[in-house]
């Protein structure tokens, strides 16, 4: 038996269509949802990614503005610019593309973003809100993974979910979201003694390390759901994930591909968060008699 594929491109397309509908409804009330993307420096991958985000936004009727600054921009100037965007009521979401140049403190920059505009969900206030189950913004990558599980009708209650990787932007928030759906969650990382013993028990595995072949067929319980967050290049320069897809697909029940899996979902959830930011701003400003 080979695993069924969770098609991230198809699901992302569906989500973008929903975003387009809700955006049209906001526009009909005179509100144009708007996202400001800040790119500092010339990193080629970042230039491609930010261009994608602008195009995705345009497709769904969101207004995305890309602001580009030189790599030697002073951190104080960036903080000042974020302050201006924070105070601008026409801007609903602010995204500072990472990585930032080395002379900048990324945490300090991200924490300068108003939490109600933190559509990346990277602010400590957003992390705290997720942890205690309060409204906020969920980081787009783990949020997209949850949507993929939802799309196959998967009930996480009582299931064992193993997350490989403990980053602040994927592993840790992923574990919190799975816990929120009543899964039993194990977080594995570089100091985990017997990774295979952990993953063999898992009903759901999320691989988010950033290294090829972290998960191979011998490590997967038959029928498990495998979500691949990795973004790597193989020896031929081809885009690949953390999971040995060809091997694991023969054991797993469901699997996400790379490319065409979590990546497009990450971008789709950014649109959802931006729209949500605009809807919340509209609700807060609405006349009580409205
Ligand atoms: N503030 C900030 N927020 C981010 O969300 C952020 C960031 N900085 N810095 C860089 C990473 C990377 N990232 C990707 C998202 C989607 C794809 C994606 O859609 N990948 C396609 C392939 C795209 C291609 O072919 O190049 C796929 O997996 O099918 C890739 C990369 C967001 N990031």
From TrEMBL:
Keywords assigned by UniProt, alphabetized: Amino-acid biosynthesis, Histidine biosynthesis, Hydrolase, Methionine biosynthesis, Multifunctional enzyme, NADP, One-carbon metabolism, Oxidoreductase, Purine biosynthesis
Domain Tetrahydrofolate dehydrogenase/cyclohydrolase NAD(P)-binding: from-to ranges: 139-281
Protein name listed in UniProt: Bifunctional protein FolD
Domain Tetrahydrofolate dehydrogenase/cyclohydrolase catalytic: 6-120
InterPro entries: Aminoacid_DH-like_N_sf, NAD(P)-bd_dom_sf, THF_DH/CycHdrlase, THF_DH/CycHdrlase_cat_dom, THF_DH/CycHdrlase_NAD-bd_dom
NCBIfam families documented for this protein: PRK14189.1
SUPFAM superfamilies: Aminoacid dehydrogenase-like, N-terminal domain, NAD(P)-binding Rossmann-fold domains
EC code(s) of this entry: 1.5.1.5, 3.5.4.9
Subunit structure: Homodimer.
Pathway note: One-carbon metabolism; tetrahydrofolate interconversion
Catalytic activity: (6R)-5,10-methenyltetrahydrofolate + H2O = (6R)-10-formyltetrahydrofolate + H(+); (6R)-5,10-methylene-5,6,7,8-tetrahydrofolate + NADP(+) = (6R)-5,10-methenyltetrahydrofolate + NADPH
Binding-site residues for NADP(+), renumbered to this chain: 165-167
Signal peptide per UniProt: none
Similarity annotation: Belongs to the tetrahydrofolate dehydrogenase/cyclohydrolase family.
Pfam families according to UniProt: THF_DHG_CYH, THF_DHG_CYH_C
CDD domains found in the cross-reference section: NAD_bind_m-THF_DH_Cyclohyd
Functional note: Catalyzes the oxidation of 5,10-methylenetetrahydrofolate to 5,10-methenyltetrahydrofolate and then the hydrolysis of 5,10-methenyltetrahydrofolate to 10-formyltetrahydrofolate.
